């Protein structure tokens, strides 16, 4: 903003007789003023870049639309690299708070300090998805348990269903602590809140908890109702997110041979994740698999680059769409029939059973853990083809999935 002391104004002085005397005109200043006016003349108006004349509020509004609708990180990053002004306005807190999860769906191979900083900026701006994604990465991949859990809790306070369910899994397993740190009641409460918000895995987990009396009073009828509701919501999600409506959603694929160890409740166990998830596989109907959350995909890629070993003696969840690792030895429960797979939750157990483990599970009389300790037999028929018994149903250090 120019003041009256600028060059565009003639100098005014007062003489002794209090008369105002105007000095001679400053022709150099007039030439500058004329040059500035000529820049806005109609002759060259069409040749100017009018981007600088746009108000900041309008540019921020456009960037908010872009960040919320971007399909990959490069869509937004390319805009930030265009010029200094777009870089500054693109990192505005309002723009970062509207950023969609696909905008910061960073691949594990591209992880860097800049990517970490960008996710932190989004989380500090109040972006709930960024809080959850960064919380999962810090908790499981970067081994920063306290910061990761607090970020997930921040997202859960904002009623983020995925964060509520992830915190429930942490409470069920006592992740980041010891086996005595498990809090089944807290896990059920968090699961119930996520199920109320419509989270499918939380509905399935809550249904199994009610059926088994795991952290809550047993109610088989109510548990079956939640399992049926989870399947119904999963089927509705397939219809609503179908990318190609002309393509048939269901294909008839009769099972060639009956499974040697069928489970009578597999119709209500549901399925999802991975390629060609058979939601209604017992009837030969296949539906497309749901898209994995960027946090789960990041963890799967992160540990796949490390030969699938999260640490000495630690294992990954056997469900392909999960990616959660153990934070201590024998944290996850394994299949009590074959002993070759392990799961972080009963929701992952049911999904993996429907996807592939149904055809792979083979009962064995005895199975040995990594240290050579012999565990006991599993006699029940769970949703993963015979997961049976309770947490103390084996003689080794591993828990087995209870009958669900």
UniProtKB/TrEMBL annotation:
Entry's Gene Ontology molecular function annotations: zinc ion binding
Alphabetized UniProt keyword annotations: Metal-binding, Zinc, Zinc-finger
Membrane-spanning parts: none
Ranges of residues in domain MYND-type: 319-361
InterPro entries linked: At2g35280_TPR_dom (IPR057136), At5g50450/At1g67340-like (IPR044508), F-box-like_dom_sf (IPR036047), TPR-like_helical_dom_sf (IPR011990), Znf_MYND (IPR002893)
Gly residues biased stretches: 375-393
Biased composition (Low complexity): 394-404
Sequence segments annotated as region (Disordered): 368-404
Entry superkingdom: Eukaryota
PANTHER family in UniProt: MYND DOMAIN-CONTAINING, MYND-TYPE DOMAIN-CONTAINING PROTEIN
Annotated protein name in UniProt: MYND-type domain-containing protein
